[in-house]
Design goal:
8-stranded parallel sheet; 5-stranded mixed sheet; 32% helix
Length: 234
């Protein structure tokens, strides 16, 4: 059954027009009045809805019953990422959402080649948030991970709390399979294509990020992020 994110109050009997993106998708699927779709708004569970009217650009549905379905990971994991360039960040947001990350924090770092500010940064944040929503539609999650506004690494480190780890080449870094195990909330910091600089790595460790290592091979930034997330979520 087609699933759509709908950022609106949902309740039995409510009649509403779908957001433009969802409406276009319903039209592409050639849905007809009387067909059933699934809606979720990120507030928990999902709703069955019936298509009432199909216009040229508008699709009106009526909300029916609520299903208390949750498909969240047992552990809340945040990925803080020195943004990789081009489509790799898009790919990473999509896959991290599918795997179960609850938050993604895109960061400016010394070796990162992607630089965003002002309106361009806001547009990228909205773009990545939309990717996360679409990934939830596909994978069955009913709670959409938050994509933070782009920040510099120093700001992020000053605000970080709770258990936290950084992928690191520092001497004494603990193997990730061991270091990332557990069930408490966790933040994992990963550098961009060139990794964190030695100064940034030291800064993260001084801010309470435990150094962890993924092994002897050199991984792409997005591969390392997915590997770390997979280990953290067991």
């Amino acid at each position: 059954m087609p699933r759509f994110f709908c950022d609106a109050a949902l309740g039995p009997g409510a009649e509403l027009a779908l957001p433009p993106g969802a409406a276009r998708h319903v039209q592409v699927l050639r849905a007809q009045p009387g067909d059933t779709i699934t809606l979720f708004n990120g507030q928990g569970g999902q709703w069955q809805a019936t298509v009432r009217r199909m216009g040229r650009s508008e699709v009106v549905v009526q909300v029916q019953s609520h299903e208390a379905v949750e498909r969240e990971a047992a552990r809340a994991v945040t990925l803080a990422i020195g943004m990789p360039a081009n489509e790799r960040m898009d790919w990473l947001v999509e896959k991290a959402t599918e795997l179960g990350a609850v938050r993604l924090a895109p960061l400016h770092t010394q070796h990162g080649v992607l630089r965003l500010s002002g309106e361009r940064a806001q547009k990228k944040q909205a773009h990545w948030q939309a990717i996360a929503q679409a990934a939830c539609e596909q994978c069955g999650r009913n709670r959409v991970p938050v994509v933070d506004a782009v920040r510099d690494l120093g700001t992020f480190l000053r605000e970080a709390t709770g258990r936290r780890a950084v992928l690191s080449l520092a001497e004494g870094a603990v193997p990730a399979r061991e270091a990332l195990a557990g069930d408490e909330a966790l933040t994992v910091l990963i550098g961009p294509e060139g990794g964190l600089s030695a100064a940034e790595d030291a800064q993260a460790r001084a801010a309470g990020f435990a150094p962890v290592a993924l092994g002897a091979r050199v991984l792409r930034a997005e591969t390392a992020a997915i590997a770390a997330l997979t280990l953290a979520l067991g």
